[in-house]
Amino acid sequence: MLSARYDVIVLGVGAMGSATVYQLARRGKRVLGLERYDIPHAMGSSHGHTRIIRLAYYEDPSYVMLLQRSYELWRSIQARAGERLLHITGSVDAGPSNSWVFKGSLQSCLQHELPHQVLTSKELAERFPGYRLPHETLAVLQPEGGFLLPERCIVAYVTAAQAEGAEVHGRERVLEWLPLGDGVRVITDHGDYETDHLVVTAGAWNAKLLPFLEGLAVPERQVLAWLQPQCPELFTPDRFPVFNLLVEEGRFYGLPSFGVPGFKFGRYHHFEETVDPDRVMREPRRDDEELLRGFAARYFPGGSGPTMSMAVCMFTNTSDNHFVIDLHPEYPQVSFASPCSGHGFKFASVIGEIMADLAERGTTRHNIELFRLDRLLGGAREPAAGRGAGRPRPTSLGTAAVQRSNDHRTKARPPGRPTDRRPAD
Fold first, then answer.
1. Which of 51, 94, 302, 339 meets the CB 3.0–4.6 Å disulfide criterion with 345?
2. What is the DSSP string of 139-196?
3. Is 280 helix (H, G, I), strand (E, B) or coil?
C-alpha cells in the first residue's frame, strides 16, 4: 500500500503545532497535522482558559523582539477568526528591589524603550486594590501585558489552516518515524505517511519522539487554582493586571477572573515533580490546594474565597529554562520546538512562523541563537539550525520512551522556600 505524501507533517497540534500548520498552509504547502488527543485538549501545556502574555521580559531582553512579532501575529489570527483572543490588562512584574524578576523586567523595558512605570507596593495597592504585597516590593507595570484564550487560539489556527487546505487529524497517535532518503516516513495507529519535512511540536512528549532530548527537556507537574474573590470587583480584567511575583514562598503568576469562576494563579514549578507525561497524576491533591490557598490569603486576601476549580498541566523544562528550537542534529529534514519551560504559549504565534521557515528552507529571519540545541549538548555547530554531527537515531515510541514515572519524582520543594529557577508563564 502506498503511503500518503505531504510536503510537511507536524506532530502535535497544540499551541505551537496549530500555528505551524497554519503558517505552512497559507504558504501553499501540503501539510498534515497529527494530534494524539482531541483538538484542543487538556492533557499537556496548552489549556487553562487564559494564558499570560507580556512584553516586559525579565527572563532575557532578547525575547522582546520575538514578543513584538508575536503580538502582531496574535492580532492577525484574531482578526481572521472574528473573535477576541487577546485581552490587554497590563502586566506587573514584582519582587524585592534587588530581585531578578524586578530588575530583569525593568532592564527589558529600558533596553527596548517599552512604556512602563515603577511602583512601590503601596502605590500598586492604591491603583489596583486586589494587590497586597510586602512593603519592600517594587513592581514594573507595563501597559501592554494581558492574556490569551488558549483553547480558542488553537481552534482559530486549526480552522484557518483547514480553510487554507491543511489536513488535521485528532486522536491519531504516532508510533514511529523513520528517515527515508531526504524525507521521513511517519507510522501512526491509523496508517503510514511520507513527507519531505517533519516538524515535532509534541510538548511534554517531545523526548519520546526525539530521544536526544531525554534528560534535556524534562516534563514537570504543575497545578493551578481558581478561587472565588471575596471582593470580585477587584479581580476583573479592567482592575487587575496579570502578574509575575517573587516572594519568600517562591515565584507565582496570576490572572484576573475571566471566562470561568475565580481568580487564577499558580506557583512556578509547584512541588518540582518531574514526571512521565503518560503517567502524571492529573487529579489535584490536598497539599496542592493548601500551598496555593496560603499564597492567596497572604498576598491577595480579597481574592482568597472558596476554591472554584483546580487543574494540572505540565511544564517541560530545560536546564537553563530557555526554549529549544532547531533542526535535528543528524537529520536536517526534521525540525522541532520545545514546549518552552513553562513560558512558551505567548510565543506560539511567532514560533509557528519560525517553524514554517525551518521547514521551508532550514533557516529563519528571526534570531533564535539563544534557543539552539548545541548549548545543551555541549557541542558547537553552525548558527540557527545549521548542520552538524549528532547522536540521535530513528525513533520508535515503543523503545525510546522516557522512563520517568511518578515513582521517580524529584523530592518536592516545601512551601516557604523560593526557587531561583527561571521559566515563566
1. 51
2. EEEETT-EEE-HHHHHHHHHHHHHHTT-EEESS--EEEEEEETTEEEEEESS-EEEEE
3. coil
| Cα within 13 Å of Cα(219), Cβ side | 28
Out of 264, 267, 372, 422, which one is annotated catalytic? 264
Amino acid at 143: P
Average pLDDT over residues 210-233: 97
What does the pLDDT read at residue 425? 66
One-letter amino acid at 384 equals: A
Mean pLDDT of 260-281: 97
Residues 366, 56: Cα–Cα separation, whole Å: 19
Alpha carbons 314 and 297: distance in angstroms, whole number:
25
Residues 6+ apart with CB under 8 A from 235: 130, 229, 256, 257, 263, 302, 303
The Cα–Cα gap between 53 and 68 comes to 11
Weakest mean pLDDT among 18-22, 187-191, 395-399: 395-399
Q: Is 109 a catalytic residue?
A: no
What confidence score (pLDDT) does residue 62 get? 86
Catalytic residue among 36, 51, 185, 421: 51
> For 43-66, what is the mean pLDDT?
93
Residues 336 and 393: their CA atoms lie apart, in Å, by: 15
**Burial (CB count <10 Å: 0-12, 13-18, 19+), residue 281:** middle
Q: Residue 230: pLDDT above 50? A: yes
The three-state secondary structure class of 238 is coil
Find the radius of gyration of the CA atoms of the chain. Answer: 21
Provide the 8-state DSSP code for 321. -
DSSP 184-236: EEEEESS-EEEEEEEEE--GGGHHHH-GGGTTTSEEEEEEEEEE--SSGGGSS
pTM: 0.89
pLDDT band at 341 (very low <50, low <70, confident <90, very high): confident
Which among 236, 241, 265 has a CA at the least distance from the CA of 253? Answer: 265
> Is 122 among the catalytic positions?
no
The one catalytic residue among 208, 251, 322, 346 = 346
